[in-house]
Amino acid sequence: MVFLLASFAAFRQLLDMGTSSAFFTFLSQKQRSAHFIRVYWFWVASQLAISLVVVWLMLPDALIGQIWVGEDRTLIALALLASFMQGLVWTSASQMAEAYRETVNLQRLNTLVVCVHLCVMVALWHLDQLAIPLVFTALIIEWGIAAWLASRMYRTQGVPRQNEHGTVKTLSAIVSEYFRYCGPMIPYVWLAFAHDFADRWMLQAWGGASEQAYYGVAQQFSAVALLATSSILGVLWKEVAEAAHRNDLQRLSYLYSKVSRILYFVASATACGLLPWSNELLALTVGEDYSGGAVTLMLMLLYPIHQSLGQIGGTLLYATENVRLQVKLNVFVMATSLVFAYVMMAPPDAFIPGLNLRSGGLAWKMLIVQAVSVNLLMWFIARSFDWKFHWQFQYVVFGVCFTLGWVMHQIAALLLEDISSTSVKIILATFCYGLTLLFVVVARPSIAGLLPTELDRILRFKKSIRR
């Protein structure tokens, strides 16, 4: 299941060619007409239709077996539909809601869908029917309905088809607008497809389903450290695109610097709090069978720390239509990353011998490449916008959070030795870790990207709520 969803997540990039990023940027700049929205949804439907025809009808069985390592064609088609519905249809619809500043209602809808999915999975498990085809079917239905509801949050009433010069936005004019944005990205997204698919295919071919599962579970845990970043990226994209459209460079600089510092701190604090408990978390959540993935989980918990900065930098470039810089850097990074992935995962008896580290090797590759590429991206952004490149805060924030996380883990191991419940130990240690980190932030607000005056306003606001 993990491999099928990951492979089609990569495949979507091949057909999308950056149009979903362009769509959100255009909606964020100004309100668009119903005609503009319909053109984009026709393109989404075309992508899905082309994908189904290729996978369901055109690819021979031998090639299907090689690419998806012996999986059934019907299961592959269901995975395709589930991946597109959640990854493209829902994402595009949620972008419409974000662009219309319906963030709160969108988050409510998102939470509702996740809760419904959890209930469906529990029901299937209780009925002894928890099979992958039914999981994919549930994803298709749930995210399809959610996408329709989210798209209804965007209002096009009163928005004319004409532009500010009174000229009707024809289909060719809309296509030209997309091509100007996406043209430089096409080679990049095709390489991104090859890169992402190759990573997971090599892991599946050389590590097997168990190593794929170790990596998939580690990815799910690492996503916890990105919750704050994921929640705010849509809002940031909208605000940056609008500021760039108004040529408000001062606000651009403020948004980029402030959000980068805050979210890097949140990601570091979350990851470093969970990191020392990797073995215990696996045992509690997925069972002892996954204990072999403990190293992979530890590495992947660190991955979101720099990923948050990378997503913020990418959002800035996409929202300002400055995609050439993103393309040039990422093409170099992905080409290097592919070689690195092969060396880390290939078995010793391969044509070119590798280190055979399997899921741990892929996690090491992701972590190292991410840290290096993100700092390169930040340096290029600073240079392009004539900003100062600040990098020292990364090591200070990570050092403090990492040290506190391990210290609290060791204290918990000594003081709570008599407590048999692992979950109680984790909860108590995490509470003490969070409280200590809070004291550090109050003493040094800059570590969380805050000014003393901003921290004072936050504290006064909390006091007024309690009253």
How do the helices and strands line up, and which of them pair or pack?
Blueprint: H1 2-16, H2 19-29, H3 34-58, H4 61-67, H5 73-99, H6 103-126, H7 132-151, H8 171-182, H9 186-222, H10 227-245, H11 249-274, H12 278-285, H13 294-319, H14 323-345, H15 358-385, H16 392-415, H17 422-443, H18 452-466
Structure description:
- The chain is mainly alpha-helical and 467 residues long.
- The chain folds into two domains: 1-169, no CATH class; 187-467, no CATH class.
- The chain has 18 helices and no strands.
- Helix 16 (392-415) crosses helix 17.
- The chain is globular.
- The relative contact order is 0.09.
Largest sheet: none
Number of strands: 0
Classify the beta-strand content into a percent band.
under 5%
Structural class from helices and strands?
A: mainly alpha
Backbone CA Rg: 23 Å
General form: globular
What is the helix/strand order? Answer: HHHHHHHHHHHHHHHHHH
The share of residues in helices is over 70%
- Unreliable runs, pLDDT <50, ≥5 residues? none
Give the gist of this structure.
By secondary structure, the chain is an all-alpha fold. The protein has helices at 2-16, 19-29, 34-58, 61-67, 73-99, 103-126, 132-151, 171-182, 186-222, 227-245, 249-274, 278-285, 294-319, 323-345, 358-385, 392-415, 422-443, 452-466.
